[in-house]
Amino acid sequence: MKCPFCGAESRVVESRHAPDEEAIRRRRECTSCGRRFSTMERVEAPPLIVVKKDGRREQFNRDKLLGGILKACEKRPVPLEAIEKLVDDIERDLRSALDREVPSVEIGERVMNALRAIDGVAYVRFASVYREFKDLNEFREQLEQLLRAH
Question: In the chain, at which end, N or C, are there fewer CB atoms within 10 A of the end residue's CB?
Fold first, then answer.
């Protein structure tokens, strides 16, 4: 790797895993000017494409998924760590599948299944937005299903 200060070659002085275990942090030293700098090495994942209900395609956005789940869990006793783990698990499962395109419906169903087990109120909040309930009867049916399951 080239030195960012003088452009000469550098050598690796130390390597270790980054805190998330998803990258390697390398301490480097320039062979010419002697200055030190750090680099992060990550696996380059192919893009994951989400196919929306109307057929549009967009790149998977982890922050968008996290935001929706955070909104559903707002003012609920759901720890942030549990929410982040849920998002991590869903993203990992989607990326490990052989398909590079995933229907948004599949993502929504995965979120709802996980939220149902974590917090019933957060589940109903997410489901009401995701399923676009048209009236109170649809909302009541969803609540009754949840109550029967518990």
Answer: C
